[in-house]
Design goal:
This protein has 308 residues and is of the alpha/beta class. Helices cover 49% and strands 17% of the residues. It has 2 domains: 135 residues, Response regulator (Rossmann fold); 147 residues, Reverse transcriptase/Diguanylate cyclase domain (Alpha-Beta Plaits, 2-Layer Sandwich). The protein is built from 10 helices and 10 strands. Strands 2-1-3-4-5 form a 5-stranded parallel β-sheet, with helices on both faces. Strands 7-8-6-9-10 form a 5-stranded mixed β-sheet, sandwiched between helices. The longest helix has 33 residues. It is elongated, with a radius of gyration of 30 Å. The N terminus is likely disordered. The structure holds guanosine-5'-triphosphate. The site of guanosine-5'-triphosphate has 16 residues, from strand 6, helix 7 and helix 8. InterPro entries: CheY-like_superfamily, Diguanylate_Cyclase, GGDEF_dom, Nucleotide_cyclase, Rev_trsase/Diguanyl_cyclase, Sig_transdc_resp-reg_receiver.
């Protein structure tokens, strides 16, 4: 079985900051012999510049340096978003508990006292590199999970759940700060079943993606846009007066009905528009937009309907 220590973490770059040339050379050689790439810096400022210019994978840091000391260097690196996650191991002749505590409170992951054993330094370096790599991988996976949980897989826009959560936030803020209302536009592709029936589900999917693009192009950055369900989409337009929201819906209607979407031909959509009232629940607002959408469908489709 391979243990975490045995897995090679080669090709990682390690920055050593130490003012004693013999330490720089000895440590550097030990690490190079273990196939790490090594950068050596003899002062705090040079170490800082080196780390900021090209962040290494790990830093071995002496405490006593001729200019800024290791603690301050560590503090500065931990405050910078580009370097804050780099594992820092202090390597110092100071063997006082207070110095060790200060090192860990600066954000160091480990502390090695001089004179050091090569095997120990290598073991500590390897484990912190592995740990850091796992951590980054976990963060990436969490971001991906977050993306999957909040977006619609076909169109890449927000899904219903995340739309509702953002919209609740807008609603609460509008109420709290007595801001003007916001508009909700609910739109539904007309006779979409026919497109699926005539051209197949894959073409239906392509139409949904193209529709999404046309709508997205007509929106502002502050507008929320989500897939509400099958062929139904929802838009929240913050701090927009009633005429503005109706005008936006009309522009989107024209953009959708404009150019044909091959091979399905002309695709149209019906729109329901409602403006929030102070204290109104989000569900009730969306229900009003849904009534308006139903009216638009009943009145012949490919139109915008507004309800008071
Ligand atoms: N291709 C594809 N079709 C979907 C998707 N989600 C829902 N649909 C289809 O969308 C169609 C919706 O049909 P209906 O609710 O009858 O509405 P419509 O045909 O658009 O008619 P109106 O809304 O009355 O104009 C159904 O055939 C669903 O199978 C999807 O993700 N991809």
């Amino acid at each position: 079985m391979t243990t975490i220590l045995e897995e090679p973490t080669t090709a990682a770059t390690i920055l050593i900051v130490d003012d004693a040339p013999e330490n720089l050379n000895l440590l550097g050689r030990i690490l190079e012999d273990a196939d790490y790439r090594v950068r050596r810096q003899p002062t705090g400022h040079m170490g800082l510049t080196s780390a900021l210019t090209a962040p290494p994978d790990l830093i071995l840091l002496d405490i006593r340096l001729p200019d800024i000391d290791g603690f301050e260097l560590c503090d500065r690196l931990k405050q910078n978003s580009d370097t804050k996650d780099i594992p820092i191991i202090f390597i110092s002749a100071l063997n006082d508990a207070g110095d060790k505590v200060r090192a860990f409170s600066s954000g160091a992951v480990d502390y090695v006292t001089k004179p050091f054993q090569a095997e120990e330094v290598l073991a500590r370096v390897a484990i912190h590199l592995r740990h850091n790599a796992f951590q980054r991988q976990l963060e990436m996976q969490n971001r991906e999970l977050e993306r999957l949980a909040t977006t619609d897989p076909l169109t890449g826009i927000l899904n219903r759940r995340s739309f509702t959560s953002y919209a609740e936030h807008y609603r609460a803020r509008a109420d709290r700060y007595h801001q003007s209302g916001f508009g909700v536009i609910l739109l539904d592709i007309d006779k979409f079943k026919r497109i699926n029936d005539a051209f197949g589900h894959d073409i239906g999917d392509r139409v949904l993606v193209e529709m999404t693009e046309r709508i997205r192009c007509g929106l502002r950055e502050v507008d929320l846009f989500a897939r509400w369900g099958g062929e139904e989409f929802i838009i929240l337009s913050p701090e927009t007066p009633q005429e503005g929201v109706i005008h936006l819906a009309e522009r989107l209607r024209q953009a959708i009905a404009g150019d044909e979407i091959a091979p399905a031909g002309q695709v149209t959509a019906s729109f329901g528009v409602a403006i929030s009232r102070r204290g109104e629940k989000l569900d009730d607002l969306i229900r009003r937009a849904d009534f308006a959408l139903l009216d638009a469908k009943t009145a012949g489709r490919n139109r915008v309907q507004y309800v008071e």
